[in-house]
Amino acid sequence: MSASTPAEPRPTEATRAALEAAASRLPTHDVQDYEDTERGFIGRSEQRRIVADDGHLVWDLDAYRFLDEPAPDTANPSLWRQGRLLIRDGLFEVVPGIYQIRGYDLSVMSLVESDNGVIVIDPLTTKEVATAGFALYREHRGERPVTGMIYTHSHLDHFGGVKGIISDEDVASGRVPVIAPEGFMEHAVSENVFAGPAMGRRAGYMYGAALDKGPAGQIGAGLGQTTSLGEPTLIAPTVDITTTGQELTVDGVRIVFQVTPGTEAPAEMNFYFPDSKALCTAENTSHTLHNILTLRGAQVRDPRAWSDYLNETIELWGDDLEVVFASHHWPTWGRERAVEFLSMQSDMYSYLHDQTLRLLNKGHVGAEIAEILEMPPVLEAQWHTHGYYGSVSHNVKAIYQRYLGWYDGNPAHLWMHPPVEAATRYVAAMGGIDAAVGVARVAFDEGDYRWAAEVLNHVLFADEHHADARSLQADTFEQLAFGAENGTWRNAFLSGATELRHGIFGTPISADAPDLFSALTVEQLLSSTAIRVDGPRAWDEHLVVSFVFTDLDRTHVVTLRHGTLVHRRADAPAAGSTVFTGSRAVLSALLAGALDVAAALADGTLAVDGDPGVMGRLAALLDPPDDNFAIVTP
Question: What is the Rg, in whole angstroms, of the alpha carbon atoms belonging to the chain?
Fold first, then answer.
């Protein structure tokens, strides 16, 4: 393969050999998943493309039909198999009265028929796909009104489509209760606020939304194929689930809940339908090893708590349940199979946690543990424990990080040069850029792509415009992608290759939606403003501003001093401060820089006591985030 030819990337002999070796280790005799993905099939939509009001494509149900073909030599056969299972779209019966819409998004929407209508569980990521999926359900099951909405947890792909199915009026009138675990709102709107731009940019790599789909391109993300490109929405819950054992009857349907905070999400819950003997495990189980820390970035999850809660799930309902279904993938039927599935999922997280700690306490660092740790053969023999979304490698490093942080204890790593400064020194030590590229080319030709990528990374951080280095690094990333069993790893490698060849594609998917922004608390809104202050430029500025929220009957005082913006709730405006008075919506727009102050003052929606120019001084000190920052170059 020529390292200078970007078109039609092909695997090298080393990559083909690695893929053949990977295929030989797979439990190909186990075809149960293929049966399970077809079980209960009712029908699929004839409308294969879902389009937004402005005409852009939100979802294409046929985009991955190439996966119906045998695995090519440009994809790990295990990941290819996972993609084939995930593209089975349509309406499926779990048990009589419980249905799922699968294949319409990264996540799955479940529907439970009630006395007078239907309860919806997790309405996908965006309203367009939720509307289309619900229309398919109604096509086959009739025009049933929604009598309840359940969010299993606080991630966008489990609530963002809510307004494609119900409205604010439905909830405000009391017709539709919205049920969620305690803490849902705080986590749903805060996870992507403070580090949102960076997370969104990195998510572009993780999900590969900007990549071409195809045998040598994006073939999925392991948990689902990718995320829909519509409008995320949010309606606040009206019923909080606070304790395990809490029971509700929603339009005649009995539901018993188990709270599982700190597992796959900070606010999450499992729940059981005793009359159907059906258990919903949210995203606490799926047919993959999940993430302890996602590649887009997040707070590190607690694998010990995750395992313990799944054991509690078995204790609560293992003697009675007949089926386990979740918010991704397909159900597991039969008590024995379902309990074994739950047990193995629990043991998987427990084993990763305990063995990482064992090796950590013997002095191994995260990168070493990731190479040493092997999963038990009985778990390796299960398809659902393979690392299609999370991986043993990056989960082990996350567990190390959870307990010991970024520093591995070696003083040589305590104050290292940052990437560009380190790169120039590495390249010089290798005899210059051309010599370093030569080292990388030898590694590439020998199939040592990890070393080639590391050397070329130094070269590009020393000279990002070096054409041969860019081309060879793109080739290297492609070979790493072709061998990856993990969907998000494949997407990350291919995204890096794409940007090296064609330039930065930015942030294809963003959670910065009006509905989510409007759900911020005042404290979250002010804190999100604080992290945008350009500290050095604000060192010598001192401002005090009071905001009186007329519809919330509360006052907040904001002070900018020493380059830091601090805020507090107060009984009255601060003495001598400029006071802005208005509704939450008006003052939120003012803080966001989206309000025409003169017009708002003229029409009376905003009042000010003091110097209105103070907001202009503050705005001038705010540093907007960059959604297009470089990743594989400086």
Answer: 26
Which helix (H) or strand (E) segment holds residue 477: the answer is: helix 467-483
Q: What is the pTM of this model?
A: 0.96
- Rounded Cα gap, residues 502 and 500, in angstroms: 6
List b or e across 47-80, with b for residues whose CB sees 16 or more CB atoms inside 10 angstroms.
Answer: eeebebeeeeebbebebbeebeeebbebbbbbbb
CA angle 468, 471, 476 (to 5 degrees): 120
Closest CA to 188 of 152, 226, 156, 143: 156
What contacts 24+ positions apart, CB below 8 Å, involve 15-19? 15/73, 15/447, 15/479, 15/482, 15/483, 16/73, 17/447, 18/447, 18/483, 19/73, 19/76, 19/77, 19/482, 19/483
CA distance 544 to 620: 15
Beta strands 178-181 and 146-150, pairing class? parallel
The DSSP call for residue 494 is: H
Distance, CA of 206 to CA of 634 (rounded, Å): 19
Q: How far apart are CA 113 and CA 93, in angstroms?
A: 11
Residue 297 CA, chain-centre distance (Å), reads 9
The answer to whether the beta carbons of residues 215 and 75 sit under 8 Å apart is yes
Query: CA dihedral in degrees (577, 583, 585, 590; nearest 10)?
Result: -30
C-alpha to C-alpha distances, 308 to 319, 375, 516, nearest whole angstrom: 18, 19, 32
Share of the chain above pLDDT 90, in %: 93
User: Any idea what DSSP says for residue 14?
Assistant: H
Task: Write the CB contacts of 277 (distance below 8 Å, at least 6 apart in sequence).
Answer: 95, 320, 321, 322, 323
pLDDT of residue 7: 64
Distance separating alpha carbons of residues 105 and 157, to the nearest angstrom: 8
CA 515/CA 513 separation, integer angstroms: 6
Q: How far apart are CA 142 and CA 113, in angstroms?
A: 11
Q: Give dist(CA 308, CA 312) in Å, integer.
A: 6
Q: Output the CA angle 123-278-176, nearest 5 degrees.
A: 40
pLDDT at 260: 98
In degrees, rounded to 5, the angle at the alpha carbon of residue 470 between the alpha carbons of residues 397 and 468 is 135
610 CB-near residues (< 8 Å, 6+ apart): 577, 578, 579
First to last CA, the chain: 28
Tokens of 514: 């009006």
Q: Which long-range contacts (CB under 8 A, 24 or more apart) does 569-577 make?
A: 569/523, 570/546, 573/546, 573/548, 573/609, 574/544, 574/546, 576/544, 577/544, 577/545, 577/546, 577/610
Distance CA 217, CA 592 (A): 38
Q: pLDDT tens digit string along 274-324? A: 999 999 999 999 999 999 999 999 999 999 999 999 999 999 999 999 999
Closest CA to 306 of 272, 338, 271, 353: 353
CB 192 within 8 A of CB 203: no
